[in-house]
Recover the amino acids of this structure.
């Protein structure tokens, strides 16, 4: 009688609440801080700057698919514990991966057959098209990547599943991190089967806190995502990282809404990451660094406030009042905008990597006559504000932890109240239908709804069409921008330099021997080494490679952002909902809105749209392989230009193909959603009538059960509100 999903949610709520309460009750426990955000938001760099003075203690995952949750605490003797997937979890990974393998094999076979028939001139039916490339869900693609990594490594997975691996007996943090690399490093042998890891490091700054570094909260691996949620429920404070260029975008808000609201977390600290990137993007709008820093910060603050205000307004419309999450976010404004890169540059002096040196050069070329000193870099990094905030959290540790139990209880009560309200609405609707007891009337109403929905297909299709056009425009615009940017990447600028060169001169000199008159007129040749300054023209290979790396990084991020923002999924769902609502007259006293609203919400919530994730790094090494020196001269400059042009061409070809594929995938997904949406909505309506048919077979018993359930729900709600 009660929706099974709601019952499962309540059971899950009970289990996590018990675990969270048990954790919060632990005596003398440390303050737990969670670091959360989407993938590619600089969480590991932020933590390295905040806790490890900029040292790369926390390795970056090779891809979002290999990211694992990391818990960091204090210990005099450094240790680590690695948790592998369970057999059941890995079997689910394999199931998804092999499904992709089979679908790809079938696609390749069909494609080969199509191409062969075309080559051989076999007559095909008019309008025959090549087979459609499979469109795999994000989780399936993530599972396939993990599966491929295991295949390449030759790892015998069964030896490690359902187990933990402990690293102990190390004498330093550095040794521990080195020993941990095979388990969490980008190319680690065991990385694909690691679900989470715990590090205990000998760092005084960790003595009274524990930090949870989460993978991207839009983790495609479900079991890892659940583990992240479990750990978040045990955190007292959350640092939310969002790229300051698109601060708190729709995906950030969706992640927050899904993971934070009812975890009893009252302290959220908003961090705008990658401030240096925003500065490099926007500096041309300002006359000086003195004008740029405060003006850009104000602009970003206004943008953050605007985003939160917009979400709050939508929240009030949907929920009849501002939710607890929205109030918490308003209290967290303004954000702290930081740059981990500038923090590193300020501390490393001359010991910079090529990538860091390139960033510093770009910063120093923003404004004529202005050079970034370590002090200015540290000011731009802005970590002093983060440290101040962290110290304030430490000072308020006892208060935060004392309120934790109440906050958890309030959060669980809010979530349970939402579930109970959903049950009450569902049961009330079913009971009202049953009390009216007119199956024929219910069937008639249901049929009328279906007819109205079918008659209004065009209005619903207009919404899908609108977003189809929006996707095409967005991706076309970003593709053109990428092509334009590639022109500057192709340019290899030659430079002039000077160097000291040695050269040898020869001369004839007399070489007589004193007591041999026959030699008095003889000469010999002598050489002399001379030095001169020579001007020459050269090109820097590293600059060429750095241009490519910057292009790849910026392009990947640009495509990810464009595809994730081509459709605001929340607005998309809302527009569809409004289009369907527009088919009915809610002021008609004979119209029962409950018959359509609940099924409509269920159908709309099922809609999802994929995003673009690119891996283009493999092209960059081709230039490094061609040129083993850092500088080239003469004819080699032209060779470098030709090679750069070739690699950029390869990148553009792959990017264009990926954008076209992603655009096709997104458009196909919208088409499938459109095809499935109305049938699913109609199916939910038919299920309601079928439930009435079943209930009418034993009407009195069903009515009593509905009334009993409502009485229990109302009593539970009353106790929660008392």
């Amino acid at each position: 009688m009660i929706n099974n999903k709601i019952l499962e949610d309540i059971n899950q709520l009970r289990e996590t609440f018990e675990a969270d309460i048990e954790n919060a009750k632990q005596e003398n426990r440390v303050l737990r801080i969670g670091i959360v955000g989407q993938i590619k938001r600089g969480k590991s760099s932020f933590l390295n700057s905040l806790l490890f003075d900029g040292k790369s203690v926390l390795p970056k995952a090779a891809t979002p698919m290999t990211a694992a949750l990391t818990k960091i605490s204090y210990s005099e003797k450094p240790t680590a514990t690695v948790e592998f997937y369970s057999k059941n979890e890995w079997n689910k990974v394999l199931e998804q991966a092999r499904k992709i393998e089979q679908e790809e094999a079938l696609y390749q076979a069909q494609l080969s057959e199509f191409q062969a028939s075309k080559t051989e001139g076999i007559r095909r039916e008019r309008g025959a098209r090549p087979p459609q490339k499979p469109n795999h869900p994000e989780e399936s693609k993530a599972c396939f990547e993990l599966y491929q990594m295991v295949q390449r490594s030759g790892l015998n997975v069964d030896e490690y599943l359902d187990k933990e691996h402990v690293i102990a007996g190390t004498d330093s943090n550095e040794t521990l991190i080195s020993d941990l690399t095979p388990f969490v490093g980008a190319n680690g042998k065991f990385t694909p089967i690691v679900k989470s890891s715990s590090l205990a490091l000998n760092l005084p700054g960790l003595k009274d806190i524990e930090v949870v570094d989460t993978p991207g909260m839009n983790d495609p691996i479900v079991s890892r995502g659940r583990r992240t949620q479990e750990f978040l429920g045990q955190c007292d404070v959350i640092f939310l990282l969002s790229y300051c260029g698109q601060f708190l975008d729709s995906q950030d808000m969706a992640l927050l809404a899904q993971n934070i609201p009812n975890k009893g977390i009252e302290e959220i600290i908003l961090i705008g990451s990658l401030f240096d990137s925003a500065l490099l993007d926007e500096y041309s709008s300002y006359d000086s660094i003195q004008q740029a820093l405060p003006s850009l910060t104000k602009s970003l603050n206004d943008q953050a406030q605007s985003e939160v205000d917009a979400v709050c307004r939508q929240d009030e419309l949907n929920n009849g009042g501002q939710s607890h999450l929205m109030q918490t976010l308003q209290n967290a404004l303004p954000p702290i905008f930081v740059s981990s890169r500038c923090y590193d540059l300020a501390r490393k002096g001359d010991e910079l990597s090529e990538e860091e040196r390139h960033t510093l050069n770009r910063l120093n070329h923003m404004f004529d006559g202005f050079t970034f000193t370590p002090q200015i870099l540290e000011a731009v990094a802005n970590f002093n504000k983060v440290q101040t905030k962290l110290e304030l959290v430490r000072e308020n540790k006892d208060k935060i932890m004392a309120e934790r139990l109440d906050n958890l209880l309030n959060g669980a009560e809010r979530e349970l109240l939402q579930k109970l309200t959903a049950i009450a609405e569902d049961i009330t609707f079913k009971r009202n239908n049953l009390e009216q007891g007119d199956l024929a009337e219910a069937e008639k109403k249901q049929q009328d709804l279906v007819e109205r929905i079918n008659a209004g297909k065009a209005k619903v299709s207009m919404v899908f069409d609108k977003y189809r056009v929006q996707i095409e425009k967005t991706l076309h615009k970003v593709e053109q921008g990428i092509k334009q940017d590639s022109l500057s990447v192709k340019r290899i600028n030659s430079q002039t330099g000077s160097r000291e060169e040695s050269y040898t001169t020869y001369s004839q000199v007399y070489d007589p021997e004193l007591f041999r008159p026959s030699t008095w007129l003889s000469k010999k040749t002598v050489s002399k080494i001379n030095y001169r300054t020579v001007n020459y023209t050269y090109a820097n290979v590293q600059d060429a490679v750095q241009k490519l790396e910057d292009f790849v990084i910026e392009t990947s991020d640009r495509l990810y952002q464009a595809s994730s923002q081509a459709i605001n999924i929340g607005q998309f769902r809302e527009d569809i909902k409004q289009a369907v609502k527009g088919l009915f007259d809610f002021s008609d006293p004979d119209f029962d809105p409950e018959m359509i609203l609940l099924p409509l919400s269920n159908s709309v919530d099922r809609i999802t749209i994929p995003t673009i994730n690119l891996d283009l790094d493999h092209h960059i090494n081709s230039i490094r392989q061609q040129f083993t020196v850092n500088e080239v001269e003469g004819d080699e400059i032209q060779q470098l230009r030709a090679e750069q042009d070739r690699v950029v061409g390869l990148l553009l070809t792959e990017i264009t193909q990926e954008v076209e594929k992603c655009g096709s995938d997104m458009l196909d997904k919208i088409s499938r959603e459109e095809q499935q949406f109305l049938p699913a909505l109609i199916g939910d309506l038919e299920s309601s009538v079928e439930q009435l048919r079943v209930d009418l077979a034993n009407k009195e018993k069903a009515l009593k059960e509905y009334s009993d359930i409502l009485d229990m729900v109302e009593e539970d709600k009353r106790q929660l509100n008392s």
Q: What stands out?
A: The chain has three domains: 30-89+142-412, 440-494+542-702, 495-538. The longest helix spans residues 635-696.
